[in-house]
Amino acid sequence: MIELYTARNSICTQKVFITLDEKALPYEMRVVNLFTNEQYLPEYLKINPKGVVPSLIRDGEIVVESTLICEYLDENFPERPLMPKSPHGRARSRLWSKLVDEHIFEATREISFSAHFRYKMRTMTEEQRQIRYANVGDPERRARFMSTFERGVESPYVFQAVAHFEKAFKQMEEALAGGSQWLVSEAYTLADINMVPYIARMEYLTLLDVWTADRPRVRDWWARAKARPSTVEAIPNRLTSDEIGEMREYGAAIHDDVARLRADYLRMFPSRH
Fold first, then answer.
1. Which residues are CB-neighbours of 263 under 8 A, at least 6 positions away?
2. Beta-carbon neighbour count of residue 208 at 10 Å?
3. Cα 54 from Cα 66, distance rounded (Å)
4. I need a surface site. Which of 5, 108, 126, 210 has the fewest CB within 10 A?
5. pTM (two decimals)
């Protein structure tokens, strides 16, 4: 039996949902409430010492980190492969995973936080906020949380986030220039799955056009990706109308600021355009 620990609207878990659905694997879901700090309860920290989601348990084996969970599932259930056959293809696919893990995950978190979740943190008590800061356990991540909470879109971390998305979308447009429907081959792979939830979040925040208005190949890729049944089941089907409405409302409020930050980045680094 597969048990998957997740949270409401968890981007990292969404790519695990997609992988499970693409491979038609049954599982039981365990919901962790991040806004009441359930992720820091001792019983959950025994499963995931970082106090984050997702976490997967299968036959007593614990696997954490969404990228590793997806590869674990693909290796253990090879009937519907989601990695290229060739070593070179697998290496190329992992470059996209690396991009997400090193840059796009944090970029999405900072933009989402500045647009939306900082307002939820304002409704917490000071004690709850301090628990969240204290349990981050990583000075850099704590600094990101505090800066984005206090300064919103004007945090330097949000500027970095906008820059990381700009570079990622540029790479995507170039990767699709050869005519392939997907990022590393004609087959849909974990390279694509890794990107889907983060791009979906930008769309729900009404920010996606900031980077894709002049990138037709990325727009076509996204139209194909979001129409897949696994994406529909993993993301829109699991969101409430209130959650969708909140993302749109708060995202629209910072749209022009994000566009301004992108323009500032392109002026500072014109060779990246």
1. none
2. 20
3. 6
4. 126
5. 0.91
As given in the structure block, the two tokens for residue 239 are: 């969101």
> Where is pLDDT greater, at 81 or 144?
81
All domains in the chain, ordered by first residue: 2-76 (3.40.30.10), 88-272 (1.20.1050.10)
Least confident residue range of 35-49, 58-72, 231-245 = 35-49
Q: Quick one: tokens of 183?
A: 């990022």
253 token code pair = 């409020």
Contact at 8 Å (CB) between 111 and 158? yes
Single-letter residue type at 30 = R
Give 175-180 contacts, CB < 8 A, sequence gap 24+. 176/217, 176/218, 176/220, 176/221, 177/217
How far is 81 from 85, CA to CA, in rounded Å?
A: 9
Work out the number of other CB atoms within 10 angstroms of the CB of residue 100: 25
- Beta carbons within 8 Å of 128's beta carbon, 6+ residues apart: 36, 37
The H-or-E segment that residue 58 falls in is strand 55-58
Please give the share of the chain, as a percent, with pLDDT higher than 90: 78
- Please give the average per-residue pLDDT across 25-39, as a whole number: 91
Strand, coil or helix: 99: helix
